[in-house]
Amino acid sequence: MKGMGKTGFASASWLRMYVSVMALSAMLLLSACGGDATPQSSASQYPSGIGNDIYKQLKYDARVEDYEESGNTLVVNVNDSWTSSPPGIRARSLGQWYSLWQASHGTGSKIVVKHEGNEIDSWNAEKGYQPSSDEKKNSSEG
Question: Strand, helix or coil at 115?
């Protein structure tokens, strides 16, 4: 009987340890796979205080050299960093600028992006993002 009791206690101790390890593993797995409680934003992230101000965004963006307003049109002069950016990133930035510009200038507004005096990208209410003609050729060939 004494041997049987020790075996029973040993297996109960082993079982208790096994269940504890499994419970701890399950909790760690659930917490690791739970994901983030805050959703990711698809818009560009600007520092606090400039997210809703197009002029501050343009001054903050290192790709922008300067800008000028002409009625409902905003002309943004950019440097080489803009032209080397992928079209999707350019479209996202331009779309965000346009949403802020349109809010204060109406539906007939337009944003034109120029590099070395040549128009390379634009955004308006009718057509949305319009890449340069070179971008259109490259995307249709690839």
Answer: strand
Q: Which alpha helices (H) appear in 44-86, and where do they start and end?
A: 54-60, 80-84
DSSP class per residue in 39-107: PPP-S----TT-TT-HHHHHHH-TTEEEEEEETTEEEEEE-HHHHHS-HHHHHHHHHHHHHHHHHHH-T
What pLDDT, on a 0 to 100 scale, did the predictor assign at position 142? 47
Amino acid at 6: K
Residue 90: count of CB within 10 angstroms of its CB: 22
Considering Cα of 93, then 94, then 97, then 100, what sign does the dihedral take?
negative
- The structure tokens 């934003």 sit at 41
pLDDT above 90 covers a percentage of the chain that reads: 49
Has this prediction a pTM greater than 0.90?
Answer: no
pLDDT tens for 101-135 read 999 888 889 999 999 999 999 999 899 999 976 65
Q: Map residue 78 onto helix, strand or coil.
A: strand
